[in-house]
Amino acid sequence: MNSVQKTMYIPLYGKAYVSRKGILLRDPKAEEIWAAAGFPLKGKSKSKWLAYYMGMRSGVFDSWAAEKMDADPTAVVLHIGCGLDSRCLRVGTRGHCWYDLDFPDVISERKRYFGETPEYNMLCADIRDASWLSQIPRGNAIVILEGVSMYLTSEELTRTLAQLTGHFASVRLLMDCYTEFAAKASRVKNPINDVGVTQVYGLDDPRKLERSGLRFLREHTMTPDDLIEQLQGMEKRMFKRLFAGSFAKKMYRLYEYRTD
């Protein structure tokens, strides 16, 4: 498993951490997997502040996915770069065909903890190679692209999104991105450095990806007030300063796109 794939353990730790504390996210599967497969993290990757942020980010993606699934009961759900995330359990398939995608080594590890069903499937895929789409029925798609875009160049990301819009009748997509400033800063100071990743990419203008056939719809917050309110006292105040203020927005953004 390469260094990029090892980054999946950082959000896994965060979700297990907040789930054990009983705040932000209920994720017993993350607790189970971390207890069985987690390895010692160092530096900022094991920070409680980052764990809170990972929990909140996942909660926002969960809520968005559930809303879109309820609005379109015929759409397939694609969680691209799923890692060891248990969103399929937290949200539930709700009668949809749900596909979790990641590199072969990741899916091999994932299959130790998750089983496939008629509605839930795991696919080995490098999303930069469009051949995996032949395994997915055409129609409408709800696409979760969490913790992925920063590992793709602008050209790779645009081409990947264009492959999605070319395959499906309609696409609804939520994607987190580093800013260009964050990508530069990440070369020297980022939790992912602790697992060996030093090269990432940023995006400042969300409309730049409209060349793919997607239309930028809106920006979301990754730190909603109702989730921040679950923190207590000094932790709440510190989190707001570190992760919910103007500096955080200069680093990390959450964009929603659609095709129609």
Structure description:
The chain is of the alpha/beta class. Helices cover 39% and strands 17% of the residues. It has eleven helices and seven strands. The protein has a seven-stranded mixed β-sheet with strand order 3-2-1-4-5-7-6. Helix 2 (9-21) crosses helix 3 and helix 2 packs across helix 4 (48-71). The longest helix is centred in the first third of the chain and has 24 residues, at 48-71. The chain is globular and about 50 Å long.
List keywords for this structure.
alpha/beta; about 15% strand; 7-stranded mixed sheet; 11 helices; Rossmann fold
Biggest sheet record = 7 strands, mixed
> Order of strands across the widest beta sheet?
3-2-1-4-5-7-6
- Percent range of helical residues: 25-40%
- Overall spatial form: globular
CATH superfamily: Vaccinia Virus protein VP39
What name is given to the CATH topology?
Answer: Rossmann fold
What's the helix-strand series? HHHHEHEHEEHEHEHHHE
SS summary, helix count: 11
The structural domain count equals 1
pLDDT under 50 segments (min length 5)?
190-197
- How many beta-strand runs? 7
The fraction of residues assigned to DSSP E strands is 15-25%
What gap, in angstroms, lies between the N and C termini? 38 Å
Quickly name the level 1 CATH class.
Alpha Beta
Given the helix and strand composition, which structural class is it?
alpha/beta
Radius of gyration: 17 Å
Quickly give the CATH architecture.
3-Layer(aba) Sandwich
Mean pLDDT: 90
